[in-house]
Backbone:
């Protein structure tokens, strides 16, 4: 099978990680883990974006040198990956020599090819966004939108990349490649944006204005524009591994236009490299219906949240709640609803019942299944249907629906247990009742094992705990694991801690 390379955006280190950063990494991780289970050789990259004005200013505000500041915050992002059980193969930092060397080599290459030129530029500049603005960026009254912060008119000599000369090539490329942007409506907006003429891209910042960047190889009085530097991480980190192009560049909706949808494919094309196969564009989380922000108190710190609940509960909630590509809202109430009903009462309860009943009625060893009746056949048919549907949904990135279907299967296992009522069968010593008891215990255990194979990419730690409870090794492949079988017959079960403790009742006001 062909190798698979996926990346997340690299996070700015001017602030601590938040829910949005956590989501993007978990989404990428779910894809990486699913692909590995399918036998693909996956390379998964994430990292941090460490140059530019914002980082320089944040370091100054803290009174520490920028490199020290970056080291500290990059450490927080790395720790977040570990905490969230993200299976990234590499973590790239744009201040690393391996990245800087590639950026400089690429700039030199473009300069030598005549793709970069020097020119005098006069224009309005936003320090906050680190970009020159166009007249059409103004509000109807003539002022600049708040997102640009302070805007000043400046004249300076700079270096420009010939972006505009590739506009038609890009339009043709996007038109011919339907898979270049997911979801489709984002591809449409990108093409709409390209209906207006592009300007060339200013790729330098004079050192007197900004020091914290990669010096241009052909003029050391300038540093590289942070986006030009940052985008190249996807390439610099794998250049020597021969992994380019990426299969998925996973990004949030705010950084498709112009950075990933325009600059990035054109930069690559000018360098003689193919664009990433797909820009996978996810939506944004709001919190309690509002933009997440520290000042309004609706900032979700993923580290604190995982400590309060659990890593897998957060992973589950984010993937279950957000349709990939659409926006979603995060609230504690909605989290609690899913936590209690889907994780604690449905899945957690199934695990407890299966293990406890096998201990009580079969001395903790899964009995061989006897003859099957309708109840068993129906559950087996539902499994086959669920498994095939989930495979299709995963391939279409519909992870939220795939999880919903998997949980419907879990509900069906619980319903099967009610229907069979092993506690009643256990009281009946007749041979048919005892055979049915063995069948029902074997069916519960096998169905639970199968459900965990589908839950594994989203909740790997939980799924492996359940597997350990069923006497199974951690899951490393889907090969041979997805068929209904008798493999658990004779397996000795082990106790499993409570996976999703019931939350305390809400405080009375
Ligand atoms: N450093 C740039 C990306 C450079 S990629 C070559 C950047 N960093 S960021 O820290 O601001 O954002 C990192 C990722 O997190 C982006 O994909 C962004 O869309 C995503 N999110 C930031 N806030 C988010 C939400 N509230 N919800 C979901 N994702 C969000 O942009």
Residues:
């Amino acid at each position: 099978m062909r190798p698979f390379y996926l990346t997340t955006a690299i996070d700015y280190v001017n602030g601590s990680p938040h829910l949005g950063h956590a989501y993007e990494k978990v989404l990428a991780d779910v894809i990486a883990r699913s692909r590995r289970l399918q036998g693909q050789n996956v390379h998964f990259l994430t990292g941090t974006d460490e140059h530019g004005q914002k980082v320089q200013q944040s370091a100054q505000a803290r009174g520490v040198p920028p490199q020290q500041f970056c080291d500290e915050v990059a450490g927080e992002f790395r720790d977040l990956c570990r905490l969230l059980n993200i299976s990234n193969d590499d973590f790239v930092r744009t201040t690393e020599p391996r990245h800087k060397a590639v950026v400089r080599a690429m700039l030199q290459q473009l300069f030598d090819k005549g793709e970069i030129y020097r020119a005098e530029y006069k224009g309005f500049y936003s320090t906050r966004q680190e970009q020159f603005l166009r007249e059409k960026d103004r509000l109807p009254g003539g002022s600049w939108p708040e997102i640009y912060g302070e805007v000043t008119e400046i004249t300076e000599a700079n270096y420009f990349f010939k972006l505009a000369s590739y506009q038609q090539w890009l339009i043709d490329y996007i038109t011919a490649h339907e898979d270049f942007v997911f979801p489709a409506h984002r591809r449409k907006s990108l093409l709409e944006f390209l209906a207006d003429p592009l300007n060339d891209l200013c790729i330098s910042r004079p050192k007197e204005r900004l020091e914290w960047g990669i010096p241009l190889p052909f003029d050391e009085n300038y540093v590289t524009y942070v986006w030009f530097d940052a985008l190249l991480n996807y390439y610099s980190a794998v250049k020597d591994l021969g992994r380019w192009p990426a299969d998925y560049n996973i990004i949030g909706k705010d950084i498709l236009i112009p950075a990933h949808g325009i600059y990035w494919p054109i930069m690559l094309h000018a360098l003689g490299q193919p664009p990433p196969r797909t820009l996978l564009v996810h939506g944004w989380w709001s919190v309690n219906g509002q933009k997440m922000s520290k000042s309004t108190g609706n900032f979700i710190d993923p580290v604190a949240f995982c400590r309060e609940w659990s890593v897998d509960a957060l992973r589950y909630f984010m993937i279950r709640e957000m349709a990939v590509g659409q926006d979603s809202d995060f609230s504690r109430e909605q989290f609690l609803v899913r936590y209690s009903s889907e994780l604690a009462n449905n899945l957690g309860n199934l695990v407890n019942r299966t293990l406890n009943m096998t201990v009580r009625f079969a001395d903790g060893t899964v009995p061989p299944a006897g003859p099957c009746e309708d109840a068993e056949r129906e559950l087996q048919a539902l499994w086959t249907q669920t498994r095939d549907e989930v495979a299709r949904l995963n391939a279409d990135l519909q992870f939220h629906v795939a999880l919903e279907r998997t949980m419907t299967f879990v509900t069906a296992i619980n319903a099967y247990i009610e229907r069979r009522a092993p506690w009643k069968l256990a009281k009946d010593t007749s041979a048919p009742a005892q055979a049915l008891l063995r069948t029902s215990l074997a069916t519960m255990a096998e169905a639970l094992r199968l459900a965990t194979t589908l839950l594994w990419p989203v909740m790997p730690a939980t799924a492996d705990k359940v597997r350990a409870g069923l006497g199974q090794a951690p899951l490393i492949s889907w090969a041979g694991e997805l068929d209904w079988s008798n493999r658990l017959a004779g397996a000795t079960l082990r106790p499993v801690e409570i996976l999703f403790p019931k939350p305390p009742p809400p405080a009375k006001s």
In short: The mean pLDDT is 96. Residues 113 and 270 are 9 Å apart (CA to CA). The chain has 17 helices and 16 strands.
